[in-house]
Structure to design on (234 residues):
């Protein structure tokens, strides 16, 4: 099974931590041991190569059971065989009746290309949720979330959880790299940042247009070294 990880750097009691995989208590999804078929309710193009997918849970009165730091595994049968991929939901953990994903369509992506052809009412099998780490509010004074491309979804999930939790005083900086200014989930991210003084976002665009007013370039090893040096001085 493929593992998608994001870098979570904590200030104060600084550290990077991981926990063993586990399946939290669930409602709308079957956990780690089973599969369930969910119907596509709707899909919408959010960038030139990414879509937002909304799937209906089998019981409209329950939530999916996802937690911050969790993902699900999707399974479809294609002419080339069965394909499985992990995806991080972007819906709220307490959202009832639905589960949402933002997924980039890759030219050679067997599952993402298949998903992009789905129509409302079509079904996909899911397993999970499965947690890759356990987020504890207020464990760190500040965190930096660093990612790029389709890797934004687990970072967005954590950013949203921090901003929307009035009892979590953690400061969070999202540092995100994109090849173009057609940035995945940008509207949602900007709305979160505007709504809270706990969060900031820094976009890096490597193939920016002339009128791009943000940062240019890529997040590389040199940039990450500078971040680590900054942490040591704080």
């Amino acid at each position: 099974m493929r593992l998608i990880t994001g870098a979570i750097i904590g200030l104060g009691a600084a550290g990077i931590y991981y926990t063993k995989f586990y399946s939290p208590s669930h409602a709308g999804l079957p956990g780690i041991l089973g599969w369930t078929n969910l119907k596509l309710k709707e899909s919408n193009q959010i960038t030139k190569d990414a879509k937002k997918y909304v799937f209906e849970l089998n019981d409209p009165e329950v939530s999916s059971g996802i937690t911050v730091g969790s993902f699900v595994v999707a399974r479809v049968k294609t002419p080339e065989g069965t394909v499985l991929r992990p995806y991080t939901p972007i819906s709220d953990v307490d959202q009832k009746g639905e589960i949402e994903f933002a997924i980039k369509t890759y030219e050679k992506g067997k599952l993402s290309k298949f998903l992009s052809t789905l129509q409302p009412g079509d079904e996909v099998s899911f397993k999970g949720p499965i947690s890759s780490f356990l987020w504890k509010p207020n464990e760190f004074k500040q965190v930096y979330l660093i990612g790029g491309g389709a890797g934004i979804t687990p970072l967005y999930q954590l950013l949203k959880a921090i901003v929307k939790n009035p009892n979590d005083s953690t400061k969070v900086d999202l540092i995100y790299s994109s090849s173009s200014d057609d940035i995945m989930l940008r509207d949602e991210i900007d709305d979160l940042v505007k709504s809270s003084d706990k969060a900031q976002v820094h976009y890096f665009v490597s193939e920016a247009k002339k009128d791009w007013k943000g940062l240019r370039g890529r997040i590389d090893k040199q940039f990450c070294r500078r971040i680590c040096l900054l942490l040591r001085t704080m």
Observations:
- The chain has four helices and eleven strands.
- The longest strand covers residues 31-47.
